[in-house]
Amino acid sequence: MGFAAEVSQGFSKLSSMESPLAQLLQDDAQARVRAHGRGPLLVLGGPGTGKSSVLEERFVALATNSVAPDRILVLVNDRDHKMRLRDRLTRRLLFEEGMSALIEVPVYTWYGLAHHLVGRHFRELGYPEAPVLLTGPEQWGDVREALAAENELNWPHFRGLLHSAGFVDEVVDFCIRAEQQLVEESDLRTLASQRPEYAEVIEFHRKRRRRLLSSSRMDYPRLLEDAGWLLANVTSVRESLERRFSHVLVDDAHELAPVQQRLLSFLTSNGAGDRSLVV
Fold this sequence. Notes:
Elements: E1 8-10, H1 20-34, E2 39-44, H2 51-63, E3 72-76, H3 79-96, E4 107-109, H4 110-120, E5 132-133, H5 136-148, H6 165-180, H7 185-194, H8 199-214, E6 217-218, H9 220-233, H10 235-244, E7 247-250, H11 258-267, E8 276-278
Parallel strand pairs: 1-2, 2-8, 3-4, 3-7, 5-6, 7-8
Helix pairs in contact: 1-2, 2-3, 4-9, 5-6, 9-11
């Protein structure tokens, strides 16, 4: 079986009223996760069943058994979780496990890992310099400013509505949603052929995309998509991560969006050697 194969270990959600036997079974399942060897492992369980805790225990077990901590990548969904987990792991390794020094405890959010990749390899993506991330309000403001500067001659069907607040809101909403959903050029062509009355809005969106690329600006969905593109298409980037991280731990994998799932598949596409993935 390849590295993308899945082995399921179930966790039962237990309360303080359940039997000692049930607790023993849960402890055994958690021990199997901590001791998992090479290849993938899918950990199943609902909220409160200890999945996050057992991933922390697996990190410590790996780091104290011949794997350098900086070669174990942990991916989480939010910054607060990242900070708390990294602090706990650092304290445990230094003060409980007696390590004299740490190079790094690589706990990343998905966006943090993507920003690291895109910031280092922006030229392969066509950006003239390291891109700047736009916040939600900045995206809305950018579309409105660009629309306000448009020449009415480019909008023969909507010329009378170009400065209407309602129409502007609709165009802004289209552009933002198209970016959030990572609508591709082929999708835009299909939409334009099916709804020719939208051609002016679609062309405006295309121009905005080109302008953002040339000015090195992007939004968060595009950040993840670009990072996935790098791993899928630039062999040196993918191989450098494979050399750097021999083990990958993913918390709350059930919450991953499709673009994050693609990023993970590219990140763990090579199952050679003693590499492992636990999600």
